[in-house]
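Milestone 3.1: sequence recovery, worked example.
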């Protein structure tokens, strides 16, 4: 048993014997995350090895990890307790007029009996907890570690999610980084730790292997890197916590300190302030009772006032202000483009549903405008979008489709009202507000170039759909290519990566998901266990995507992959309702895979750059190129 990678010093002023003096503690290496051997504390008494029993509590452990030069105690507290009890016995003997004898030390043995009884009770408790935990796992179901291991999946790295905790300060945490974690292969009554190395990363979760197991994966286990019980190497030494080798391998080495010195010198560990960074990254500025403007989920063309009811991991449960029973709610991330400060709608000319409530309710207050996500400033004074221009857009009511769309209204500050051709309501209640820089709108021809299925207007019969013919028939023009957002960040996503994603048709749900296609910055998200018709097109920087382990970290409920039986049993559930709702907005589908070509559309010559393949797209290419005359 070690009290940290470096031995912990002990003040022996209370001991009557010089034998109880301890080795001085070495300072925590200042150059973390690189572990160094400072050469001061990794020494052993000659000829002292094997196992030992603590004379205070009876705990059995590795002898060379015990305290005092004689290795009689398992911890600092036992050494001090022994010394204190010995003094009490001696004082009692003197008060009785007798010289101190060995018999007087019987008093210090009494705690051992109590501790042994407590230990037996502790072991029984552990067994009961293990049974309970096992039952809970079998009923609650999903485990990311088992899911990834059994299928050899790869998860998207935390650095892909800038809005998620630690997304911008994850650093170079990778395989072979060493950490100190609880030792679960141990029968001791107190929590002890051991050093483990990262074998594999999956989002916030790491597959760990205890030091000393070499290539034996028998006791590998998954642990959240951001959990409260995972620490950089050296934490135990600084905190006075014992390091105990796993019971399975405790006889493998006789000199554990020398083994650790050899294994850890020069290795990487977590930064010393890692847990502080985790805590800071999980502080959110939005608070309950804040008022915001948010899209009206029943009439997408307008916004309403809503109040923040709760905040979980940066996700907001918003309750529409007029909801008396507080059940009319809407979920979104605090960085969502769907929420705005009070007064936003009036400032840009967006439709707004006035509340019947004439004054703010007690305790409610307007959210400061600076807390909302900023949009890129645009110059509308020159060539700009105009009403009636055609484009392609992700259908907000059926996110698995990209549709033929029209600009219905140009608002201030670069915002546009978009309608889906052939599916619009007569009163425009299903128009949707996109910013001109939104990654959800595309120029004419985007789908054809990137071999994406374009959904034509509902009822349009001239198939396959051709933009040239459609523009001529409708007397329309295509929105200029140069007005669209062509920025493509180096996002790091790859096809096949696992993640946790919001079902935007039921935004309270976060599901196990997979990236199945990548078109520059556009990701095709598939919900594991569901049919492809429920897939959704999402931007790579969407705040509705999260790393594996995000739900566990924040305490949000994760929806596991749907099995065939559950899909059949839920035929009348929300997923089926979503399908029914979205069908009324779907046009006839037919994949068009026309060859790359140049077409003259209303006087402008467009030569589109074909998208990179799904497997090779890394965010380095543009969506399209306009060829100057």
């Amino acid at each position: 048993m070690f009290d940290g990678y470096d031995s912990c010093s002990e003040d022996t002023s209370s001991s009557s014997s010089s034998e109880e003096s301890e080795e001085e503690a070495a300072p925590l290496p200042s150059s973390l995350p690189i572990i160094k051997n400072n050469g001061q504390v990794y020494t052993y008494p000659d000829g002292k090895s094997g196992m030992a029993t603590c004379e205070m509590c009876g705990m059995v452990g590795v002898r060379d990890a015990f305290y005092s030069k004689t290795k009689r105690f398992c911890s600092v507290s036992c050494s001090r307790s022994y010394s204190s009890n010995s003094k009490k016995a001696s004082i009692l003997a003197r008060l009785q007029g007798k010289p101190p004898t060995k018999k007087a030390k019987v008093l210090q043995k009494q705690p051992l009996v109590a501790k042994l009884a407590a230990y037996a009770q502790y072991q029984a408790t552990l067994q009961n907890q293990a049974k309970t935990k096992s039952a809970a796992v079998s009923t609650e179901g999903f485990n990311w570690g088992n899911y990834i291991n059994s299928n050899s999946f790869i998860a998207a790295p935390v650095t892909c999610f800038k809005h998620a905790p630690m997304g911008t300060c994850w650093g170079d945490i990778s395989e072979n980084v060493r950490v100190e974690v609880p030792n679960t292969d141990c029968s001791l009554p107190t929590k002890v730790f051991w050093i483990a190395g990262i074998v594999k990363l999956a989002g916030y979760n790491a597959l760990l292997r205890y030091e000393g197991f070499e290539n034996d994966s028998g006791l590998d286990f998954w642990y959240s890197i951001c959990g409260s019980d995972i620490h950089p190497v050296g934490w135990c030494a600084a905190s006075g916590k014992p390091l105990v080798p796993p019971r399975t391998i405790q006889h493998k080495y006789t000199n554990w300190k020398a083994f650790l010195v050899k294994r850890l010198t020069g290795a990487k560990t977590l930064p010393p302030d890692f847990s502080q960074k985790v805590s800071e990254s999980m502080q959110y500025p939005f608070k309950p009772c804040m008022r915001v403007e948010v899209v009206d989920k029943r009439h997408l063309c307008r916004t309403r006032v809503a109040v923040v009811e709760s905040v979980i991991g940066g996700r907001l449960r918003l309750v529409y202000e007029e909801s008396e029973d507080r059940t009319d709610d809407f979920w979104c991330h605090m960085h969502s483009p769907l929420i705005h400060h009070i007064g936003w709608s009036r400032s840009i000319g967006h439709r707004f549903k006035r509340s019947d409530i004439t004054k703010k309710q007690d305790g409610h207050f307007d959210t400061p405008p600076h807390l909302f996500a900023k949009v890129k400033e645009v110059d509308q004074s020159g060539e700009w979008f105009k009403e009636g221009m055609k484009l392609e857009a992700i259908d907000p009511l059926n996110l698995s489709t990209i549709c033929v769309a029209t600009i219905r209204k140009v608002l201030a500050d670069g915002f546009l009202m978009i309608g889906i051709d052939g599916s619009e309501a007569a009163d425009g209640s299903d128009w949707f507000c996109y910013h001109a820089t939104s990654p959800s709108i595309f120029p004419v021809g985007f789908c054809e170039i990137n071999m994406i299925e374009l959904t034509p207007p509902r009822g349009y019969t001239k198939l396959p759909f051709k933009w040239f013919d459609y523009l001529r028939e409708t007397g329309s023009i295509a929105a200029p290519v140069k007005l669209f957002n062509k920025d493509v960040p180096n996002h790091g996503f790859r096809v096949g990566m696992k993640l946790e994603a919001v079902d935007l048709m039921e935004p309270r749900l976060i599901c196990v998901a997979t990236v199945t296609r990548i078109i520059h910055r556009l990701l095709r998200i598939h919900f594991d266990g569901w049919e492809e018709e429920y897939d959704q097109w999402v931007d790579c920087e969407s705040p509705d995507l999260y790393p594996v382990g995000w739900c566990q970290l924040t305490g949000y409920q994760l929806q596991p992959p749907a099995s065939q039986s559950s899909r059949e049993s839920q035929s009348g559930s929300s997923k089926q309702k979503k399908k029914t709702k979205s069908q009324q907005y779907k046009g006839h589908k037919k994949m068009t895979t026309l060859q790359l070509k140049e077409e003259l559309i209303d006087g402008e010559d467009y030569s589109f750059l074909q998208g990179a393949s799904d497997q090779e797209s890394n965010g380095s290419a543009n969506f399209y190129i306009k060829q100057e005359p």
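The first strand starts at residue 51 and ends at 53. The chain has a mean pLDDT of 78.
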